[in-house]
Amino acid sequence: MKVEFGGDKPWPGTSMQDRVQLRLLIIAGCAVLWMAAVFFRLGFLQLIEHSEYLSRAHRQQQRTIEITPKRGAIYDRNMHPMAMSTEVESAFAIPTELGENKAQAAYLLSGALNIPRDVLETKFNSGNTFVWVSRKLPPEKSDAVKALNLKGVYLMKENERFYPKRDMAAHVLGYVDLDEIGQGGIEHELDKQIRSKGEKILVMADAKQRWFDGGQAQRDQGASIVLTIDEKIQYIAERELAAGIARTHAIAGTIIIQNPNTGEILALANWPKYNPNSPAEVRPESRMNRAVSAIYEPGSTFKLITLAAALDQNLTRPDEVFNCENGAVTLAGHKIHDHKKFGMLTVSDILAQSSDVGSIKIALRLGAPKFYEYIRAFGFGQQTGIELPWESKGMLGKLSTWSGISIGAISMGQEIGVTPIQLVTAVSAIANGGYLRKPYVVSEIRKGDRVVLAGEAPEQEPKVVIRPETAATVRRLMEGVILNGTGKYAHLDGWTAAGKTGTAQKIDPSTGRYSPTQFIASFTGFAPINNPAVTILISLDSPVGSHEAAMTAAPVFKRVAEQVLPYLDVPSDVPVTAKLVRAAYRDVAEVPDTSLDDFNPVDFNSAPDSPDSRMPVKTEAKPPDVTVALDEGGEIAVPDFRGKTVREVTETCLQLGLNPALIGTSIAQDQSPAPGIRVRRGAKITVRFDRVTPKAKSALSRTPNRTRTRN
Fold it and tell me: I need a surface site. Which of 114, 123, 408, 490 has the fewest CB within 10 A?
């Protein structure tokens, strides 16, 4: 039997219906396999490679640009702005939109922005979908880019840090880099708080690859910082430091002004300085905060610690006499010479005349272990904890490493390294009665209207380092330094003061020995003695010519203190001269009014040393006009001082030839003799001051008692 296949002839044993069903099954099987392959591929793309293709789409269709965040402002203690963020424009390009015009765009932008043409062409041909042309443009350059109206070149808003006071307090404030990240000072130390969350802008493309702004992802503002710095006191410190540097030709210097009763830093000035608006234009050493990072041998200023420790241990007394052996003593086989051939000196004179031999003998009586304890207790050899970066802990060898000569060397300020902030804090402990308080520059951290963190609280329990009686004794010895010793040029006209000079030889790096020509001249002290309002440290590195601290640093202390004390309304506790009062009026008047309205934000690129580029200067304040009645016998009718300030009362008394005795601060409340009483020239006039005006006080006396509340 012959069987034929193909055509319409049936297969053996099959019917037509079976054949149709078979074909349908084959087609269905193929369809199922095809669909399975398609679904498998879709599943693979959606589940396995979804993120890869999504990222490719994003790269092709959109670009997320992270722009500089807006940092919180920084204020001085009186809420004057010291640092702020302003909006500026940055230029960017989309190379795909430039097309064949990249070379022409580079040529035009090069002329408008002063950027080399080849640099721009390299960016445009890099293959990136987004490139920065130039960031944070000044207004004239952003206007020039707009005027070009180039396709594919756009402008966007960014934040830029601006310091309206230019170089004022630069080492406290610090600076930021191009991405607004803090690089020094408070800007670095509190960068996480000041710096807001990053801002992102979405730039998207349509089907024809035309780019447009997709909107902002978020906007946030960082915390604001309130400093303990007073910009007017800071101005005085910087001005007098610059004058001292110019006069002595020193290569560097530091002034710190601290409130000894709280630890607040009222001013911190360094030389050399820099403009944080353009930090890259100076050498790195100019940006160094010498007040917290520079280590130096303190010299004779450290004798304060030596004497304080011995007096606190009742091992000596101010009137005890030591034999200074004609200016030489042998210690551990080394002969140490004094700067003068002293014979018999009391402890008071040892400090006043700065005798090295006398200090060594006092330290030997104290002993190395106990001396080391007091040095550590005063905060040396460790960081103070001030809110500034890169603070050094100084240099203090462990007691076990001390040699036989160490106790003698350290007693006179050698073989130990300190920072200015350590020394001023230690002297403040003597000023305030023996309490070591942590120095601080941050008063508050604010988020909007909320205070999220207060600075080092004044009421925080301080560390007791010496007894109050010891501190009082050392204060009187320090007063003797100014009245009868090496600190005579630090004598204040109008206030009692205490202090200590220090002239320390520097190590010559080439020889490893003390240099015969390079010195650090320093003076640290406080005023007034009985109720110190400020502790001031002056340090001058390598003054030329007369290098003694008595001739270089002490006069700077005098000039600074005689301006700061009247500004703080600290009543004088000794008679003042008319010359001082006139100088006080002039100097406080010259402290600039630093309201923001007085500054042109475009001016920060001008020459930093131009005389009028720093701040506006107020017109000179005029002393109050006083009409005085004199009778024929030369007697004076006492004026009515009630309601007047300390300076007004002082000026009036000096004009009349009266001797003022001022009690308290702020506004005069009452006086003796009473107004109208006739007295002779030179008579003593006692005036009591308080912070409530006489009129307000009388109103309070008539008001029923009320319970006072604290917010």
Answer: 114
